[in-house]
Amino acid sequence: MNTKLLIQKEQQHIRKYNVLSLAFIAIILLSLLIFFIAIGINIGVLFATFASQGPGVNTYALSIGLVVFGFILFITILALFIGLIILNIMAAIKYKSIEKILQVSEMDNSQKQLFASSYKIKFIISLTFAVALALLMFLSAFFGFFILIIFILLIVMFFIQLFVLLKDKFKVEFIQND
User: Which residues cross the membrane (predicted)?
Assistant: First the structure.
């Protein structure tokens, strides 16, 4: 196979990973929003009932239902986070394989270095996001403040993934025949 076809095949895999990653990020952000709303409703209901006449059976049922819902949502978010980390690692591996394909190709050195540096940067970004998410997930288990940082990082990742997808859609990277 020639270099162009090999790289296009790897780029298709990366595009799939980016689309999945974008979907995971959107679902996580929506789930986090619902999770925080459920916690807010739960706290609001408890404060309102304790302040008025004391808790009733309906209050306990609502509170337990929201706690169970929140726990299920938390497990879902955790699974999506792990999936997102794995997707970023897989994309990083594909970027590294494109870099290896370019090293053995028969293009001139300047063109080879240009493409290799582009993929090296994408490799570093994907790996950095995976490591940052894993570290922030670990730290948020001990310190709740890191959830806010994760939320901000996810929003940044969402727009970066969207930018990469749109850029790849409108600008097809081509490599001259080798």
Answer: 20-48, 60-93, 121-139, 145-166
CA distance 78 to 75: 5
* Dist CA 172 CA 170 (whole Å): 6
Phi, psi of 115 (to 5 degrees): -70, -40
Residue extents of the structural domains in the chain: 3-170
pLDDT in tens, 100-128: 877 777 777 776 776 777 777 777 877 88
Distances (CA, A) of 161 to 54, 62, 95, 135, 176: 49, 38, 15, 20, 27
pTM (2 d.p.): 0.67
Report how far residue 172's alpha carbon sits from residue 150's, in angstroms, rounded to the nearest whole number: 32
